[in-house]
Amino acid sequence: MAACFDVAVAGGGPAGAFAARELARTGVDVVLIDPDTTRPRLEGLGERVALILRQKGLEDALQAASAPMRRSVRWAGLNDTANGERLVRRHDFDAALRHAAIEAGVTVRKARLRRIEQDDPETGVTLSLADGETVTARLMIDARGRQAPSTNRQKGPQTLAIAGLFSRPTPHSGTHVEATPQGWVWSAVEPGFGPWLQICIDADDLPGSGQAALAERMRAFLAQPQFDGRFETYGFEGDLLARPAGLVLSAPKLSLPVLSIGDAAVAIDPLSGHGLFWAISSALAAVPSVLTLLEGEDPDLAARFYRHRVVGTFWRQARIGRDFYRLETDLAAHPFWAARAAWPDNEPAHAVADATRLDRRVVVDGNRLKEREVLITPQDPEGVAFVCGLPVRELLELSRTEARATGPAEALRWLESRGLLSGLPDQPQKATETHTRMRETA
């Protein structure tokens, strides 16, 4: 007899484990399906992720990360150490998040998802596991990363990341990013793990397959003249790890009863440094979507909310990445850089609004999805639904009345900063929101 749950989460990485935990904390019956095969590796973790983890009481997961470390950069003529990041041991980090999910009441099945035997928006999903067990659920969250199946992928130039542990320490502490004609390199030293190096090259630029080919490509990269032989006597301990690292849109539309999150929806180029943030933030966004759907609300709310976030994230990340690659003008003639500086287009990376208006959007309200009016301004082109907890429509009406004198001071100051203390202009012009135009991805 199949075990029955409200939600089945496939994939126990940061996106899946975090979503499972947050849903269980709301009282949803969740099963997390994951074979637990994360290989040891280092990854960068930004302060936004650290803040979310603290807010959610996940200090144990932060124990898998270092204190903030200085990052040196050699990119586009820059040679400085202005920025920083934490280093996280991904295998320990993922395990800590799965443990937190179990403590929140999540049931765990340590197995690989073999197939979805039934996939019906009305009746839910029936999942067949590799160990022979069958699980049913009203909804499924697909958090299997880049391995999640897709029939509708959209992507730009693809990158391959090859990484491994040094047998000798690197000549610097903290982390280091450097541009080269063949691609770029990220190296890091974490005392509890060891020195780690990752190169990012064109996905087609690999001679053959297997460990020998990876080692040959790594040696060719590190032999580039700009390194001045500093890696010549360095070797690697154990096998090298190779994984796809290009930007990919795998699930542009919500396809109930399955909801994709993290890399299963949009896989982020590691150049952005936003991979873990996207995993956690997409999991956070999945919670109100799932709760709304479980309560039988109009699924169109979830579909619109999902598409706006996922497709918008893909195009925004594509254009932000393009702008970073374009900064490296000295390498513009090399194929790796030329392809990435030209894709996807010349539109701005962020939304643009040249006027102020009200629009209707699907937003999170009380941990559920609701259609609400949002205020679009040149300073807030993505739209604002609430200010200091007040709906923007209510705040605008308040600003026009005598109650303004006793209204919430912070909210009124926010309106004043937008020039809206007397309400919207009588004839607002339509805003131009360039990058939020949702492209059809057939």
Please explain how this structure is put together:
This is Pilus assembly protein CpaE. Helices cover 28% and strands 30% of the residues. The protein is an alpha+beta fold. The strands form five sheets. Strands 3-5-4-12-13-14-11-15 form an eight-stranded mixed beta sheet. Strands 1, 2, 6, 7, 8, 9 and 17 form a seven-stranded mixed beta sheet that branches. Helix 1 runs parallel beside helix 6 and helix 7 packs across helix 8. The two termini are 39 Å apart.
What are the salient characteristics of this protein?
7-stranded mixed sheet, FAD/NAD-bd_sf, 442 residues, 22 strands, Pilus assembly protein CpaE, FAD/NAD(P)-binding domain, 3 domains, 8-stranded mixed sheet, alpha+beta
Q: Any chance you could write out the topology, listing elements then pairs?
A:
Blueprint: E1 3-10, H1 14-25, E2 30-33, E3 42-45, H2 47-55, H3 59-62, E4 69-75, E5 78-89, H4 90-103, E6 107-109, E7 113-120, E8 124-129, E9 134-142, E10 154-155, E11 159-166, E12 174-180, E13 183-190, E14 194-202, H5 211-222, E15 236-244, E16 248-249, E17 258-260, E18 266-267, H6 275-294, H7 299-327, H8 335-342, E19 357-365, E20 368-376, E21 386-387, E22 390-391, H9 392-399, H10 409-417
Parallel strand pairs: 1-2, 1-9, 2-6, 4-12, 9-17
Antiparallel strand pairs: 3-5, 4-5, 7-8, 8-9, 10-16, 11-14, 11-15, 12-13, 13-14, 16-18, 19-20, 21-22
Helix pairs in contact: 1-4, 1-6, 6-7, 7-8
